[in-house]
Design a protein that fits this description.
Length: 568
């Protein structure tokens, strides 16, 4: 059996008591809730993007930030902390519970579309895989925005800044699984993702690390950072005009559908970090270009009585595992996503390339991903009550399908219409089909014989191309990587067709409004999306600091700076 364990990463995870007073549990407790121009920045949403930017902007003690979060502050809930309980979190108090419209490419099915509803956002309910994306993914961002600052080389300082590699909970020797030199060649975070590598995850000391524990808990004592939870932004308000552009420096918010509405002005900016569903919801007239990663799974029975299934099928054993985790932060419950991630490309001579352009960013980006898991996993079948299994996820990570988000109602509390439009292109269905065929060839290799027994139903019945296609369309789910709904593009170009944001993440045609979350991606990376969001937010913070440091220079000094650059 495969050794089940991962490497753990992500810095800033030290724990500090929440008692220090800048975390408000309700809007009624926020003393500044209607004091105009008190805050320099108001950040909407405390997930990956919002937590990172709130932390970095308040490093300067003179910068006052308000972070609004719709969900609760209960990110130290046991189900959030225990890594292997992650699948329990969707459809609970921690989930917005979005569902998609019926999708033609999924045989007309609607699927659940989870998003985190708690401080930490989706990083508090996700599966914790740690991926930077490939060199080509980042270089494509630089190309489509015309901003070299987004390239793989330019982003290296941010990639390293957020990482604090820690050993896996079993303290095994990780030589050959992980290359310290690229974090701080060979593992899938080197820029060239292609191959199979040991999973790196946002797990430290056997416990989930999320945006709240990494970026907010350590700085709760900063008097210039106010965080208010259970508070939803309902509208971004126009506050004036500058140079013919609308200024949006006010946020309206409330604690419930019928609660009192408050409005606060920021003296500098409103920063939208509400994620790829809610940020476009707050910014009507955007929401095209949605990109996501579809997945399906195939399982096999195995010749073993010792797999992670036992923690699901044997209640006595499950109780022992929880006791072990609680006492020592060790054991099976410290495990996140599968032990290995594979990043693979179609062959260059695949028939699809005869009449279709490759949608991937380039040769360092995969077309599809495998996740190897030492248990039964399915998003369409009931879990067997007995037995031991092995599962391979096949994820389409360079899709060419594009979806959209639109309004169903003017009420900010009504869910928007979400149409991911998955598997709507020939390339996407071709690649998923080839991924299934390739995974079967891989699992038929001699090395697995005597351990892998037989493929389970119903995938086992899908053998012809048409049957495999039907299996995919009937079972496809999402890796929960919805992104790109308010994409950045080249500065100055009209927002239609070439991005709703400038390359510095400001909303085109506006003043005082910026987006710092996964909706700003122009293309989805061939990677899991939390780390690209953290890295984007790290650079965004430096961009923002740069703007206002310049503006706050004393008059005489700013003249001197302008003068000397004229002389050059
Ligand atoms: C089930 C699941 C599994 C995943 N697995 C992985 C994985 O293994 N690895 C990986 O890299 N990525 C994974 N992801 C994706 C990753 O978590 C997201 O891409 C990332 O968190 C996006 O960051 P964000 O800042 O854009 O949004 P989020 O992290 O979702 O944060 C948005 C925040 O804004 C808040 N908010 C929204 N609207 C409002 C409003 N109107 N007012 C106030 N607050 C608001 C939300 O409650 C939330 O806290 C997964 C996601 C899910 C849901
Ligand atoms: C602040 O808002 C509350 C609720 O709307 C209102 O009752 C109160 O009078 C406001 N206070 C100030 C100083 O405006
Ligand atoms: C916000 O700013 C605008 C423009 O400066 C001003 O007209 C408005 O009254 C302010 N609103 C609040 C609630 O501070
Ligand atoms: C999501 O659904 C669960 C289960 O019904 C519920 O407890 C939770 O409150 C819902 N989430 C939101 C944000 O309404
Ligand atoms: C880890 O393994 C490598 C290669 O097998 C070996 O060189 C190294 O000494 C080991 N480290 C420890 C701490 O055992
Ligand atoms: C269930 O787990 C307990 C505790 O580890 C073990 O003693 C028992 O044999 C297991 N039962 C089965 C059916 O494997
Ligand atoms: C877990 O450990 C804590 C102390 O760290 C203890 O208070 C709690 O009761 C334990 N819970 C279980 C289920 O053992
Ligand atoms: C692609 O090339 C390989 C190796 O040369 C060959 O075996 C395969 O048949 C080719 N496939 C197609 C579709 O031409
Ligand atoms: C591309 O080629 C395939 C196989 O030859 C064919 O089935 C398909 O219709 C073609 N697609 C387009 C868009 O021309
Ligand atoms: C969203 O995409 C679907 C499928 O392509 C399309 O039919 C629909 O018109 C789009 N909606 C909007 C609002 O763009
Ligand atoms: C759209 O709004 C209508 C009217 O309120 C409602 O019946 C319908 O369920 C909504 N559709 C979705 C997908 O939420
Ligand atoms: C199962 O494994 C045992 C011991 O490793 C081996 O003897 C046996 O042949 C295997 N059974 C099958 C069906 O492969």
């Amino acid at each position: 059996m495969l050794k089940t364990a991962q490497l753990a990463l992500l810095a800033l995870s030290s724990l500090v008591s929440l008692a220090s007073g800048t975390l408000y549990e309700s809007v009624e407790q926020l003393p500044t809730r209607n004091v105009s121009d008190y805050y320099d920045f108001i950040v909407v949403g405390g997930g990956a993007g919002g937590s990172a930017v709130a932390n970095r902007l308040t490093e300067d003690p003179s910068t006052k930030v308000l972070l609004l979060e719709a969900g609760s502050s209960d990110f130290d809930n046991l189900d959030i902390e225990v890594p292997s309980f992650a699948p329990r979190l969707t459809g609970t108090q921690f989930d917005w519970n979005f569902t998609t419209l019926n999708q033609a490419g999924l045989n007309g099915r609607s699927i659940d579309y989870a998003r985190g509803f708690v401080l930490g956002g989706s990083t508090a309910i996700n599966i914790m895989a740690y991926c930077r994306g490939s060199k080509d993914d980042w270089d494509r961002w630089a190309k489509v925005t015309g901003d070299e600052g987004w390239s793989w080389e330019s982003m290296q300082p941010y990639m390293r800044k957020i990482e604090n590699p820690t050993p896996p909970a079993d303290h095994r020797n990780t030589t050959g699984e992980f290359n310290p030199s690229i974090h701080g060649v060979g593992d899938y975070n080197s820029g060239d993702t292609i191959g199979i590598g040991w999973t790196q995850a946002t797990i430290s000391n056997g416990q989930r690390v999320n945006a709240a524990t990494a970026y907010l808990v350590p700085v709760m004592s900063r008097s210039n950072l106010d965080i208010v939870v259970n508070t939803q932004a309902t509208k971004i308000l126009k506050t004036g005009s500058e140079d013919g552009k609308a200024v949006f420096r006010a946020v309206q918010f409330t604690d419930s559908v019928n609660g009192p509405l408050y409005t606060l002005n920021a003296s500098k900016e409103v920063i939208l970090s509400a994620g790829a569903i809610k940020t476009p919801h707050l910014l009507p007239d955007v929401g095209q270009n949605l990109q996501d990663h579809p997945l399906t799974t195939i399982s096999w029975t195995v010749n073993s009585t010792n797999t992670l299934d036992n923690g699901r099928t044997n209640a006595t054993f499950a109780a022992e595992l929880l006791q072990q985790w609680n006492d020592t932060r060790t054991g099976d419950l410290t495990l996140g996503p599968g032990n290995q991630l594979g990043w693979l490309r179609l062959p260059d001579n695949a028939t699809i390339f005869r009449n279709t352009t490759d949608p991937s960013a380039g040769p360092t980006s995969a077309h599809y991903e495998y996740i190897a898991t030492d248990s039964f996993v399915s998003f369409s079948e009931a879990f067997p009550s007995t037995g031991n299994f092995f599962t391979m996820f096949s994820n389409l990570v360079s899709p060419s399908s594009r979806g959209n988000i639109s309004l169903n109602s003017t009420s900010p509390f009504a869910h928007p219409l979400i149409q991911p439009n998955m598997l709507s292109t020939e390339f996407d269905i071709f690649t998923m089909r080839e991924a299934i065929k390739a995974v079967r060839r891989f699992m038929a290799a001699q090395a697995w014989s005597g351990w892998i027994l037989e493929e389970t139903s119903p995938s086992s019945a899908a053998q012809t191309d048409a049957e495999i296609e039907a299996y995919i369309r009937d079972t496809c789910f999402t890796v929960n990587h919805v992104t790109c709904t308010v994409p950045m593009g080249k500065d100055g170009e009209a927002s239609s067709g070439s991005g709703a944001l400038n390359s510095d993440l400001t909303v085109k045609g506006t003043v005082g409004l910026r987006v710092v979350d996964a909706s700003a991606f122009p293309f989805i990376p061939a990677a899991h999306t939390q780390v690209p969001t953290y890295i984007l937010a790290e650079r965004a913070s430096d961009i923002i600091k740069g703007v206002y440091q310049r503006e706050s220079l004393p008059e005489s000094l700013s003249f001197a700076v302008a003068h000397s650059s004229e002389v050059k």
